[in-house]
Write the C-alpha cells for this entry.
Amino acid sequence: MAYHLLPSITEMTRILAGFLKAGGALVVVSLVKGGMAKNPPAPDGWKRVCSRLEGFEEQELKDAFESAGLQGFAFNPN
C-alpha cells in the first residue's frame, strides 16, 4: 500500500487492520520524509493524485498504526 497516495492514512490503516487475522501483519511502502522525497519536484499533475509528495516521518506512521490498535510497529526507511 503506497500511503503517500491516500488522503487519510489513519482511516485507511483502520480499514486495513480490520482485514488482518490474529498475528497478521500490515506492510506499508511509501515515501519517507527526507528520503527519496528530496528528489526534484514531481510534475504538477502528480499533486492531484499524490496527497503526500513530501513523504512521512516515522511518528506519523506509528500514530496511524497505534490508533488502529496494531502492535509491534517497526520502521525501516531503507
Remarks:
- The mean pLDDT is 82.
- The longest helix spans residues 58-67.
- Helices lie at 9-17, 58-67.
- The chain has two helices and no strands.
